[in-house]
Amino acid sequence: MIVIRKSADRGHADLGWINSYYTFSFASYYDPAHMGFRALRVINEDRIEGGRGFGAHAHRDMEILTYVLDGGLTHRDSMGQVQTFGANTIQSMSAGTGVIHSEFNASEDEAGHFLQIWIEPAIPDAEPSYQQISFEPREKRGRFRLLAAPHGSNHDGAVTINQDALVYASVLGAGETLQRKLEPGRHAWVQVARGNVSMNGEALAEGDGASVSGEQDLSFTGGPDGGEFLFFDLA
Amino acid sequence: MQDINTLVTFSSRTGATEKLALAAALGAVQAKSNIRLRWLRENVDSQTVAGVAGWRENRNRMAREYIAPREIDFLWADVLVVGMPARDGASSPQLKIYLDALSALQAAGKLQGKVATAFTVDSALVSLCSVFDGLDLILVPPEAAAGADALESARLHGRKVTEVARDLKHA
């Protein structure tokens, strides 16, 4: 079964300096029908003005992934990390027993466009950690580029998280197709980051998401102008 | 169980007291407290700021990362933690603003049952705690943890204060 979550049906908050769309309940947006999917708890699409961002705040027991679509972010945290990163990078923070961090648009005057993803950890009180991996754009073109994988799964080039979840990015040109087989009992979430993509004939536009359960053969096709999507393979 | 709210307020020029504040806040988070971090900005001219290496850069950064404590922060908090540089002790203008805000709430009977503690950059045992005298607050004095440096002591103290506040809340 494929259930589509349309972009326009997401929660929305525009505070001026930040314009956010929430796929699942977050902050002031609360809908008990959209609290997450499997271990996936948050997908926020944020547009943040130049020079603005989130001041120092805490996280606990959450796997937090950040994926930049346009611009860059500067991150500082209580583990001593000060990092600036842009597109084609996956940043991961395992909050575990506790992390305090701040995130700001790395540019003083250009707006940035970011996806913030939270995945619930399989275990509480993990050791906090920070990872950041960059890759070439061609690595996600016409294929699935693994961004995040479970700890101990031996995937080079992907950040590791405390959950049985794999996260991929893929870019498809117009009409380009890509197949994916889900293992029996696995579920998936698809989130279109840019452009248009269809999955098993279902058209998905920018900001749309879709849950997949009880399906094994998935076929993706790039829309008229192509598209980029994230693919979450979930227990 | 995130049933405790901790407000960590600090003054810092070049970041040393900020690090202690973050350590205390991290300890509170580890003990499953919600936290808010607030900064007491010194009201000084740019020439004074330029006279201390690193002050301007950190001041600009902290002005982005933190706001000053507001009344709703004090009302929200179960635990008040205040950190000051050693040079300021208990007598700086920015600390006076903080204490005046607390005095107003105390007069309205709104501080009863809240737990408070303080720290400075070079000592875990400080007279700074005396600033809370007469404010209806339950003082938890900091203790130097054996074998721990200042940051580790601050983190452990952040944990301890949260646990004390939780015990009192559920007593």
Structural class of chain B: alpha/beta
Tally the beta strands of chain B. Answer: 5
What is the chain-wise order of helices and strands of chain B? Answer: EHEHHHEHEEH
Largest interface (C-beta under 8 Å): A-B, 15 and 15 residues
Domains counted in the coordinates of chain B: how many? 1
Number of separate helices of chain A: 0
Kindly report the CATH topology of chain B.
Rossmann fold
Radius of gyration of chain B, Cα only, in angstroms?
A: 15 Å
Order of helices and strands of chain A: EEEEEEEEEEEEEEEEEEEE
How much of the residues of chain A is beta strand, in percent? over 45%
SSE map:
The complex is a heterodimer of chains A (235) and B (171).
Chain A (H helix, E strand, L loop, with lengths): L1 E4 L5 E4 L3 E5 L17 E9 L4 E7 L3 E8 L2 E5 L4 E4 L3 E6 L4 E7 L6 E8 L9 E6 L10 E6 L8 E3 L3 E8 L4 E5 L5 E13 L2 E4 L3 E4 L4 E18 L1
Chain B lengths: L3 E7 L5 H15 L2 E7 L6 H5 L4 H11 L5 H6 L2 E6 L8 H15 L7 E6 L17 E2 L10 H20 L2
Parallel strand pairs in B: 1-2, 1-3, 3-4, 4-5
Helix pairs in contact in B: 1-6
